[in-house]
Amino acid sequence: MAKNTLLEIKRSLEPHVGQKIMLKANGGRRKTIERSGVLEETYPSVFIVKLDQEQHAFKRVSYSYADILTESVQVTVCNDDGEVRITIQQ
């Protein structure tokens, strides 16, 4: 059952490759990390986000679909204007 859920999360992200997204990740010790970038690629177990250069020191981050399932990461797809289009959840 969990494998099907992970596959559903992957399929819900795939149509948004190349679009701007916002990430909220659990940084541990009650810390939340917020990042923005472009969904660059989806792979069988992970997805890659190319971060905005002016805001972050490194170029890319990767997260697993299990991070979304366990609510460690929240992904929000945005329009070019920065308006929220959809939030990807379990």
From TrEMBL:
Any Pfam family the entry gives: VEG
N-terminal signal peptide: none
Membrane-spanning intervals of the chain: none
InterPro entries for this protein: Protein_Veg
Name of this protein: Veg family protein
Species this protein is from: Paenibacillus gyeongsangnamensis
